[in-house]
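Reopening this ticket.

The earlier resolution said the output was attached, but the attachment link was broken on my side. Pasting everything inline this time so it's all in one place.
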Amino acid sequence: MCSVTFWPRRDGFRLAMNRDELLSRVIGVPPARFIVGGRAVLRPGEPGGGTWVSVSDAGVAFALINWYSIASRAHPPTVSRGGVVSSLCGCLQPGEMAARLAELELARMNPFRVMGFFPARRQVFQWRWDRRVLAGEPHAWAPAQWLSSGHDEAGVQRTRGADFDRRSMELDAGTVPWIRRLHASHDPGRGPYSTCMHRSDAETVSYTEIEVDDSRSVMRHRTGPPCQGRWLSEESVPRMPVMDFQPAASVRV
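Inline output:
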């Protein structure tokens, strides 16, 4: 269960993600810096490895959400979808994204959607795995939102989508304060349908915010529901040209 908001800018973009999980799940790890394929990468993580969102010094970002409206499920033992973004986070082009996904053990993974944001090409590319076919499609470099929910995915998409559309008409739409208000929103009421989600057994457990411009890639992260206004940690890396790097093994900085 997640909400991902994308807003392009003249020299980059903003991206925000609410991660919704069961309260019984282990708390995630705040963002750290890694070197993946010769690129500096920022990403939060799970204690056992894996992640759901990342951004690199190339300004390329990835975000993954589960796809609950697809009923088919992998037979145990399954492979965690947390490894999807980890495998992609050093990619620079949509073609690399496709090649990396093809190398994964998809047959043992449950359905997902993963979005790649490529500012140099001004393109968003989404890949969807429905347990039968891995299908990709480009998206316009335009404001957009992707939503998932294990409660009522179609209903959540309608409700949160309406909130996004309504707020997109506000004068400060796309700014950092606007994105934070959206992701802390309880419209149309505090509960399973609001962007900042609350249920008796689950809620929004973290908020991650990415800003990319010509000079740097920034990741800010908050543990807990965004409505609680907790302090945001921040990590950043300078934007670097592609030709400055050669492929290398993944190591932690």
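Reporter confirms the inline version is readable. The first strand starts at residue 2 and ends at 9. The longest helix spans residues 153-167.
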